[in-house]
Design brief:
Largest sheet: 5 strands, parallel
Structural class: alpha/beta
Number of helices: 18
Shape: globular
Radius of gyration: 30 Å
Strand order of the largest sheet: 2-1-3-4-5
Amino acid sequence: MPEQARIVIVEDTLSLARVYQDYLRADGHIVEHVVNGQAAIKRLRVNPPDVLVLDLILPDMDGRDVLRAAHQSAPECKVVVITAHGSVNVAVEAMRDGAWDFLLKPFTADKLRVTVRDALEGGTSTANSTKNENGDYAADEMYFDIIGGSDTMHDIYRIIENAAPSRATVFITGESGTGKELAAEAIHRRSERVKEPFIPLNCGAIPKDLMESEIFGHVKGAFTGAVTDREGAAHRADSGTLFLDEICEMDLDLQTKLLRFIQTGTFQKVGGSSIESVDVRFVCATNRDPLAEVRAGRFREDLYYRLHVIPLHMPPLRDRDNDILQIANFYLRRFNREEGREFERFSPEVAALFERYSWPGNIRQLQNIIRNIVVLNNGSEVAMSMVPRPVNNGTDDEHFGSATIEAPPPHPVVLNGMGDMERFWEGDPEALAFLAGSQPTREFGEHRTDQAPLMIGTDGSVDMADPQLVDVRYGGIKPLWLVEKQAIEDAIARCGGSIPRAADALGVSPSTIYRKKQAWEESNVG
C-alpha cells in the first residue's frame, strides 16, 4: 500500500462527500472530490487515482458507465462502488463490470476505511472472495440474514428492495424451512420502519380461542384467566410491522375481524368497548397454496385479495442452483465456533451429494444435518461416513435418527387368542392413520364387556382397559380416536409438555393438536 494514496470520491451530495473525505484523510490519504460522471472520467484519463470511490447514482449519467470507463482507461485503479438504490443485484452487476468492492448505504466510517485499505493493499474484496481455489465458498453472499447468490435469490432480493419502502401488504409463500420469516424480517429492516417493532405471530401455534386475544389483546375479566389487561400484537406493532405466519391456519371467524382491522387500522380488545387505531405494515406467510385454500372454503376470498398485494415466493432449496454449498459452508463455520470443532471443508463426495439431494425439509433440514455432523464428529474434512440418514443414501423417506425427535409408537392394545400381547401396530402404515384426524363415532358404552382386556403402557406396565371404550366384537380393539388421543398425550409428556415439539415429533401442525384437545374437552373425553 502506498504511504500516501490518491483517492477520488465521485458523489453529487456535497455533505456526504465531505464526510467521506474526512474519514479517509484521517488515514493520511490525499482525497479529492468530483460531483458528476463526466468529471470523474476526465480525472481517470488525465491522472488516475489509486482508488475511485464511486456512487452509482449520478446526476449526469449511470455510475456504471464511469466504472466501465475506469476499467478501460485506468485498469490499475481500484473502484469501490456505493449504492443505496435498487437491490444487491445492482452491486453484483457492478462487480461484473470490474468494481473491486461495494458498499451499501448506510455504512460506518470503519467500513469505508477498511474497504479502501483492502483495495490499496490488493487484498481479497468481500464480494470477490465468494469462492476459493477449490471452488468452495469462502465468504457468504448475504442479504440481511438470507444466504444465497443464485439468480433465483437475486430476484427475491429485488422484490424485497422494491416492496420494502411501500405500505403494501406482502404475501410470502413457500415450503416449510425455506426462510419465509427471514424474508419478512428483511422487508422490515429495509423499510423506513426499521427502528420500530417487528412483531411475528404464528397463527398455527395458538389455539383459536386465544388467537383473537393474541392479536388484539384483552381487558381484565374478558374471559377466565384474564386477570389483567394485556396488549396484543396489533398494539405492539404500532408504527412497525406485524408478521402473520401460517396465516391459512387462522379460524374463519377471526379472519373476518382481521379483514376489518387491515381495512380500517382499528380494533377492539377482547372484552373491551373502546376503539384503538394503529399504523401497522402487514406481512403474512403460509406453506400452503392460499388460492387452493380459498377454493376449499378454508380461507376468505376477500381477505386473500386484501393480503395478496405483493406476492413473494421463497423457492425450495433444491431449486436454488449453487446456494446449497454456500449455505452448508456458512453453517459449518457457525457450528464449528459453537461446538469447538475444526472442520474446514466438505469432501468432494459430500459436496456432490448435497447438491444432488432434494432436501425436502429445505434449509432447516440442511441446518440440522450440518449440526448433527459437527456435534457427532471432528476433523478437517466432512466425509461421507459422517453424513446421517436419509441424506447419506439419497432418499427422502427416512428419519434423521439422532438429528430429530422420533415420534412415539402407537400403544399396542390388542390381545391374541392365547392372551399374549402383540405389537402388530408397529411398522403398519394403516395403523398410523390416526394422524389423519379421525374422531369418536360411537356413543360410550355402546359395546360393553365385563372382562376388560389388558393394556400395555409406554413404561411396560399392564392395566385394565376401560370396558366402555372397547369393542369386543374384534378381540378387544380400542377405537382409533382413542389410540390417537393416547399417542398425542404420550408425545406431549415425552416432550416435557411442549405441544409444538410434540407436533414436530408426530409430523403434524401444533394447531392440529390444539384443535383435537379442544374437541376432546368439548366431548368430555379428556
